[in-house]
């Protein structure tokens, strides 16, 4: 009886999962080494592992044995389980379809500034919260170049034209333009040049402990 070739490789999923695990372990090893200001050469001398092997581990190009991981854990003074946390962490994605963003009023919002929150992700490991907004300004919108809040903000202009103030500088924004800035300085639309105007505002700030 002739064998029918499989259209999918049944081992592919497990191979990909193993590769992701190797990369996750490598990232933790590198992060811990750098955090403690240990060079690869120093770690090689402490563990007895070659510099080449350590490089392969940190780059996720090899699957270290449990013995090797225990050796690295002892050298870095971390529990061996810490190498697997990045692999076990739940990765979050937020999909917001067109027109489904939550309309809200942020603190200090001026008249006819429409804010639609497109998602919200906070990471316990990175300690950072990210909030993307779609902001729409109409003919009746007020200008208010004095918003101030913590974190970093990125603006990507989609439609219309505005002159945007940050600190003491005014930036003319047109479709396709990006403005990235420290949100602690006074900022906001100073002149509504061409309306309606729409832009993405992505704000990231430290997560409260």
From TrEMBL:
Name used for this protein in its record: XRE family transcriptional regulator
Pfam families in the cross-refs: Cupin_2 (PF07883), HTH_3 (PF01381)
Keywords: DNA-binding
Ranges that cross the membrane: none
Lineage: superkingdom: Bacteria
InterPro entries assigned: Cro/C1-type_HTH (IPR001387), Cupin_2 (IPR013096), Lambda_DNA-bd_dom_sf (IPR010982), RmlC-like_jellyroll (IPR014710), RmlC_Cupin_sf (IPR011051), TransReg_Diox_bact_type (IPR050807)
HTH cro/C1-type domain segment(s): 29-83
PANTHER family the record matches: HTH-TYPE TRANSCRIPTIONAL REGULATOR, TRANSCRIPTIONAL REGULATOR
């Amino acid at each position: 009886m002739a064998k029918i070739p499989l259209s999918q490789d049944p081992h592919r999923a497990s191979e990909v999962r193993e590769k992701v695990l190797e990369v996750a372990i490598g990232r933790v090893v590198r992060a811990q080494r750098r955090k403690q200001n240990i060079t690869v050469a120093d770690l090689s001398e402490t563990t007895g592992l070659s510099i080449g092997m350590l490089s392969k581990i940190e780059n996720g190009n090899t699957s270290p044995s449990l013995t090797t991981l225990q050796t690295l854990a002892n050298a870095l003074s971390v529990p061996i389980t810490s190498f697997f946390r990045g692999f076990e962490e739940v990765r979050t994605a937020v999909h917001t379809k067109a027109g489904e963003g939550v309309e809200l009023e942020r603190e200090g919002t001026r008249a006819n500034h429409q804010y639609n929150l497109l998602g919200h992700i906070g990471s316990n490991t990175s300690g950072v919260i990210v909030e993307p907004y779609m902001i729409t300004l109409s003919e009746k919108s007020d200008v208010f170049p004095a918003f101030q809040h913590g974190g970093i903000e990125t603006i990507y202009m989609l439609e219309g034209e505005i002159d945007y103030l940050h600190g003491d500088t005014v930036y003319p924004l047109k479709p396709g333009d990006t403005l990235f800035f420290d949100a602690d300085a006074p900022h906001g639309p100073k002149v509504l040049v061409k309306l309606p105007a729409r832009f993405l505002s992505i704000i990231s700030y430290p997560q409260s402990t």
